Amino acid sequence: MSNPFQSLMQDAGFPLLQQQLGEAVSRYASGTGSALSVTAIVDDESDGGQEVTSSSGVMRIRQKRLQVAASQAVTIDDQWAISGERWQTVAVTDAHDGMKIVIVQRTDQQKTVRSRPHG
Q: Would you say 107 and 88 are in contact if contact means Cβ atoms under 8 Å apart?
């Protein structure tokens, strides 16, 4: 049984937030198939991402938080297209107040160019 606040958020609050702040993104169920258009509130989780250096170069790991309608059947295997970039789902919360929180991640790799001595 939900309380009055939860009912209000589910029925009016979150849909209004989506209308005001939402943007169209594409969800690929299980990372394959055709895209489903979804309205989500998209927030950056990390400022510029985290850089990790390895022998093959530098990787930049970025995360975003998506708020989607609770009716979306999101799974950890889903992929997303946001502003032309592909993102992987790394976490999904249970539905609450008419929405689910989805954390997505993208890793960009830059190869290191090693200079060779002249001689």
A: no
- Cα–Cα–Cα angle for 38, 97, 102, nearest 5°? 45
Provide CB contacts within 8 A for 66, sequence distance 6+. Answer: 25, 40, 41, 42, 43, 80, 101, 102, 103, 104
| Confidence category of residue 106, pLDDT binned at 50, 70, 90 | very high
Q: What does the chain come to in residues?
A: 119
Average pLDDT of span 76-91: 95
Contact 74, 102 (CB under 8 A): yes
Give this prediction's pTM.
0.73
Strands (E), 6-98: 23-28, 36-44, 50-54, 57-69, 79-82, 85-92
| Average pLDDT score, the chain | 81
- In the chain, the domains with their CATH numbers are 4-110 (2.40.10)
Going by C-beta distance under 8 Å and a sequence separation of 6 or more, which residues neighbour residue 37? 24, 25, 26
